[in-house]
């Protein structure tokens, strides 16, 4: 890495000249290599582990930056070394992060207090693969308070908050994750969570399906003994349905992603706020008058479009589904094919969960200084691989922001290398994550305690009553008061006064 000195002459308030010296570093794009000599684990199972970076900036201890956590033995204050994080020294800072998150996750804390004495997860051995953030830590510590033993790893190689991983490890949770893992590290961490002497997991909490598929492929005998799987992502749920359709799913699974409290709140309201946060932090762009195309008008796309429209952007939508397309039209957006507007738009945002939504040919035709980013779960929506060619130059201009430069000088601004923007370049509202985490906790409790025969080897939605319970726990934050049905009204509607209030086929 090359550095050079720049001198700037400035005037002080008294009028004297001062010389300020800056050291600037010339950064070049580098791929993240797998450590030489380590056994390369198969990546054919999935590619979703690389679908996002970390959220906001994390505390780091630079003294440990050059050494892989796998090459160091660390011990927490209790004498345990059953973890692998960036630096256990960061635990105190991580504990403060967790305490801050708890303040806006009152519903999950309320669930913890209500059920703590009953220990509904006593005997549960949960292996988890999610983003490791302060909000996830509140969930993990809730599960342990309810009686579970937990081992945890990260679902994305850049999503871990190192200080939070350290705090969990200090508290006795076996965490194997750090920000900036190689793909080899990623699979090694999953394996360390699953394959440990004297510990047999019986529950899975997954985000993206990598952990589930790793166990299914590598440890089929362990997988068959799992009592239940809880999955929260579109990608992971899709894989579970594929296994079920093929008759290969040998354990019951709960589809949390399609629960109302996940779809409407995490996907819609969360993305409505976090899309602007991520774009503003990385590009400082003003959206008034900008032409933006949002690919996909599901709940994530709806949230993105609403936010951009409110700031005065001219928003186009692409869709394959006529129902979603009609919704976009009725909401005031023009539905187009991407090729119709590719030469004129300033920003492209993908929200489909599909692959090759934005191709190399389309990237070639975009105008100079266009912004390209992804809000879907998977990192396959933008054909980033096609941009890694000799004729194109990559220039890292700031954290998670690359300029990809064409031979004629044209450049596009690529955010997070096509990975999930809001968890890459900004933060996600803690309150919304409380809703999702409470849903996940209840799904684990339900699957673990369900009598034999209630759930077969298939994929299930969270019972409506639980969805309503999660929502009710969060109403107190807004001092909201529900109207109660009279006996006569309940009889007229054919409902129980305590719910559920809507049939399973109801669309919110």
TrEMBL record:
The keyword NAD applies. Keywords: NAD, One-carbon metabolism. It comes from Tetraodon nigroviridis. This is Adenosylhomocysteinase like 1. Residues 267-428 form the S-adenosyl-L-homocysteine hydrolase NAD binding domain. GO terms for biological process: one-carbon metabolic process; S-adenosylmethionine cycle. Substrate binds at residues 133, 207, 232, 262, 266. CDD domains: SAHH. SUPFAM superfamilies: Formate/glycerate dehydrogenase catalytic domain-like, NAD(P)-binding Rossmann-fold domains. Residues 29-79 are annotated as: Disordered. NAD(+) binds at residues 298-303, 319, 422. Belongs to the adenosylhomocysteinase family. Residues 42-61 have a biased composition (Low complexity).
């Amino acid at each position: 890495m090359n550095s050079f000195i720049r001198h700037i002459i400035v005037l002080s308030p008294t009028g004297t000249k001062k010389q300020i010296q800056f050291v600037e570093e010339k950064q070049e794009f580098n791929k993240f290599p797998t450590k030489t000599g380590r056994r390369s684990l198969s990546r054919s199972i999935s590619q979703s582990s690389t679908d996002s970076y970390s959220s906001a900036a994390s505390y780091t201890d630079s003294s440990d930056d050059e050494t892989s956590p796998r090459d160091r033995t660390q011990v927490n204050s209790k004498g345990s070394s059953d973890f692998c994080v960036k630096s256990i020294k960061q635990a105190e800072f991580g504990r403060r992060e967790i305490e801050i998150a708890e303040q806006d996750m009152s519903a999950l804390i309320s669930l913890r207090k209500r059920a703590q004495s009953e220990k509904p997860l006593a005997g549960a051995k949960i292996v988890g693969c999610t983003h490791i953030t302060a909000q996830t830590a509140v969930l993990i510590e809730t599960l342990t308070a309810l009686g579970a033993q937990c081992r945890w790893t990260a679902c994305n190689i850049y999503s871990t908050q190192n200080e939070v991983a350290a705090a969990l490890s200090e508290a006795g949770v076996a965490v194997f994750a750090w920000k900036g893992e190689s793909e080899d590290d990623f699979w090694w961490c999953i394996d360390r969570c699953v394959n440990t002497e004297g510990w047999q997991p019986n529950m899975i909490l997954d985000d993206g399906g990598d952990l589930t598929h790793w166990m299914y492929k590598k440890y089929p005998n362990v997988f068959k003994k799992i009592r239940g799987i809880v999955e929260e992502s579109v990608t992971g749920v899709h894989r579970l349905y594929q296994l079920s359709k093929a008759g290969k799913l040998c354990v019951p699974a709960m589809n949390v992603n399609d629960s109302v409290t996940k779809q409407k709140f995490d996907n819609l309201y969360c993305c409505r706020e976090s899309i602007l946060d991520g774009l503003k932090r990385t590009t400082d762009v003003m959206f008034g008058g900008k032409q933006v195309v949002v690919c996909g008008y599901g709940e994530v796309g709806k949230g993105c479009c609403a936010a951009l429209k409110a700031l005065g952007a001219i928003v186009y939508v692409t869709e394959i589904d006529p129902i979603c397309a009609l919704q976009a039209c009725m909401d005031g957006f023009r539905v187009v094919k991407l090729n119709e507007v590719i030469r004129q738009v300033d920003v492209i945002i993908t929200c489909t969960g599909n692959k090759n939504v934005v191709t190399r040919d389309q990237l070639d035709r975009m105008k100079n200084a266009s912004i390209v980013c992804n809000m879907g779960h998977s990192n396959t929506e933008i054909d980033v691989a096609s941009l890694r060619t000799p004729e194109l130059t990559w220039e890292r201009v700031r954290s998670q922001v690359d300029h990809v430069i064409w031979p004629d000088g044209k450049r596009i601004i690529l955010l997070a290398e096509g990975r999930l923007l809001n968890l890459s370049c900004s933060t996600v509202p803690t309150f919304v994550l409380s809703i999702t985490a409470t849903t996940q906790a209840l799904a684990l409790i339900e699957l673990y305690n369900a009598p034999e025969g209630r759930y077969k080897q298939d994929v299930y939605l969270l019972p409506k009553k639980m969805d309503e319970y999660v929502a009710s726990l969060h109403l107190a934050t807004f001092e909201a008061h529900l109207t109660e049905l009279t006996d006569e009204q309940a009889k007229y509607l054919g409902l129980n006064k305590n719910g559920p209030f809507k049939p399973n086929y109801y669309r919110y």
